[in-house]
Amino acid sequence: MPSIAFDDLLQARQRIAGLVRQTPLEHSPSLSRLLGVPVWLKLESQQATGSFKLRGASNAVARLDAGRKRCGVVTASTGNHGRALAFAAAQQGVKAIVCLSELVPQNKVRAIRELGAEVVISGRSQDDAQLEALRIAHEQGAAFIPPFDHPHVIAGQGSLGLEILEQCPDVCEVLVPLSGGGLFAGVALAIKAASPAIRAHGISMRLGAAMHASLEAGALVEVEELPTLADSLGGGIGLDNRYTYAITRDLCDQVHLLDEASIARGIRHAYREERLVVEGAAAVGIAALLDGLIQPRGPVVVVISGRNIDIDQHLRVINGAEA
Fold first, then answer.
1. Which residues form the Tryptophan synthase beta chain-like PALP domain (predicted)?
2. Quick one: average pLDDT of 72-90?
C-alpha cells in the first residue's frame, strides 16, 4: 500500500484547523428505526463550500512552498473539488484555474467563478478536463492539485475520519461515497488505524463507477462517463493512479452500487425525513440503507458528502422524478 501514515492525517487536521469546519454528527431517528441500530449522519454538507472537498484542497494548498504559491494552482474537477480549491486558494492568496468538462452542472460552474477562480471548459469527461489542467500546469508552472489521487489531498480528507472516531467512538460501519477514492482512502486510513474491525463501505452509482470497475478487474481500467444524479461521483480514476486505487483495494470491506431510482429515493429521504438538501453523491449512503444493502452489527455513520445540487433538479426529484 502507498505510504500515507496515520501521522500525516493528524498533521493535516492541525494544519487546516482554521480553514475548515468540524462538521456535526447528527442522529437519524428514521434510519435508526429502520436498521435497529443507531445511525448517524456526518454532515460534510455544512462545510463552507458545501462539500468535504475543502479539507483536501486546503491541506494541499497549505503544503505548497512560497514559490509554487506565486505560480498558482490548477485542477480538474466534477465541480466540488474545483469549488473547494478556488475557496482554499482565495483564503491563502493563491491564483486558481479550474478545468471542468461539459457535463458539470452550471450551478457548480457559476459557484467556482464566483469564488474568483478562472474556469476552463474542456471535453466531455473528467479525463478530458484533467488533460487540459495538466497542459496548463506545464505551460504556466502552476501546481497541479488533483481531486483525489494525491497524498496531501487524501490526508486532508482523512481529517474527516478522525472526527468520526471522536464523535462516535463505538462506530461499527462507515458508509462513504466512492468515486476517485480520495475521500474513501482518507476516511478508511483513519478508521482502520483505530480498529480494523470497523467496516468501511464504498457506495457508488451503477452508471460509470470507475473505481468499482477497476477493483473488479484487478487493474486500473477506463469507463465511459455517463450522466447520473450522483454527478460528483463521475469520472475516471486515472490509469496512472498511485494512491487511491491501492488504498481502496486494501481497506474497502464492500462496494455497493445504486441505480438512479435508489439515489433519487435517498435525496427525497434526506429532505423529507432529515430536513437536508443534499446532492446525489451525498445521498448514496442513505440510499444504500433504504435498499437494505447493509447489515450492520452496531452503530452506523453515513458520510453526507455535499449539498451542491442544482435547485431545479432537486425540486424535480423531490416531486418524484429520477433525474
1. 18-306
2. 92
